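Inputs:
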Amino acid sequence: KAGNTISGKYYSVTFDNNGNLQSITNLTSGLTVPITQNFLYYKGFPGNSTDGQASGAYIFRPDGNTPIQIPLTTWGGIYAGSVVQEAYQQFSSWASQVVRVYADKPYVEVQWTIGPIPIDDNVGKEVVTRYNIPNFGNNGVFNTDANGREILQRQLNYRPTWNLQQTEPVAGNYFPVNAGIGITSGDAKTLFSVLVDRSEGGTSLNDGDVELMLHRRLVKDDGRGVGEALNELGSDGNGLIVRGSHYLLLDSLSSAARVYRTVAQEVLLTPQVIFSNSNTNSAQYV
Amino acid sequence: AVHLQHLAEVLGVAQHHDGISGTSKQAVAYDYAQRLADGVNAGQNVINDAFHKLLPKAGTPAPIQGLCTYLNISICNYTETTSSFEVTFYNPLGRPVLFVARLPVAGSDYIVYASDGVTPVPNDIHPISQDTFRIPTPEPRAAKNELVFSVNIPAAGFVTYFGKQLSDGSSLKFKPESPKVSA
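Outputs:
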């Protein structure tokens, strides 16, 4: 399909001429926001003579607070049908995704594929994706679910029940995301949510950010009992390739919950798909 | 009950945080994978038993039902290597769901029938993305495309849809999937 837009009944997504995510429109409410998305990685802290705590299986501890961007390398174009329209993006030989808008589903699906994370430079890497809506005004406040149950409000560098002395500006603001993470605009009119199909870590470090940890591969043991670096290998002996999906929802605050709760149910209890080959025609089968 | 108990027990073992979050040694991770694969294979027997009771008319055995455990990387022997297949969708939610099916196929022209077996439903054929092709597979891929269509599934119930290839099907050869057990 020519052009840079994919659309369905509920959502429209536009990409810039390089293939980067540019804007999302909720066609039901008429809301449009500019949005960017980047893939980045934090270097895992290896530990040193004065500070031995390495990043590992139990401990997320980046080496520095600024992640390194993995730029888009290949724009695979748009494929449009009557059921789904999708756009292909390649960020490196080990990071890629497909963005999908369905004709009849009230979300934008982002299916990412990460790995094997290269560690031949002996540097552990913790790969995140960061969605950003400029000037959103969420003021360091975001919401994550608690194990698929209650949605809890989180605030940067703050805990509601004790005085936090923050020593980890990135990791200390990461929270579990089991079903979803969301940010509310400063005027309290718009909610941007990202639902997940697996447990991830998430935060909102900068205004308008939703940042989610997708995959980690590290070279040092964190000394918390595993006795090995977090460097899981597949049956081919290489690092794991991980694939998952994000479901993006943009809606007015008053009607967002009605949509994200039903979508979250469908993500958690997704239909079971079973196959057969009966060698009969469909009418006979029925 | 024996098969279901096997699946329940391995799922119970895998509830430990080591089974979920990567805080185990590599050898233990392989062991979790093997246990889960064994449990899923046992669970497939339960699925087939259930469909033998639900699907056939009296005296007619139901066709063997199989899972496609590599469907998320666009591998499924049932849809890739035959020119016609049945797909049954079970919805565990207590309300109807519109589900979008995405099945790997070798051809480029298909018709999909709804659960009455005669009503065609709209479908798309999309190329399998390059990011899928870069994933190593246990056996060569037959599929180049994905067949995408919407399925209406009733509350806490199931429907069967039917796929049929309209062209390019002469070289297809179905091989039942062997049980997946990690090394």
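Remarks. The two ends of chain A are 38 Å apart (CA to CA). Helices of chain A lie at 253-268, 282-285.
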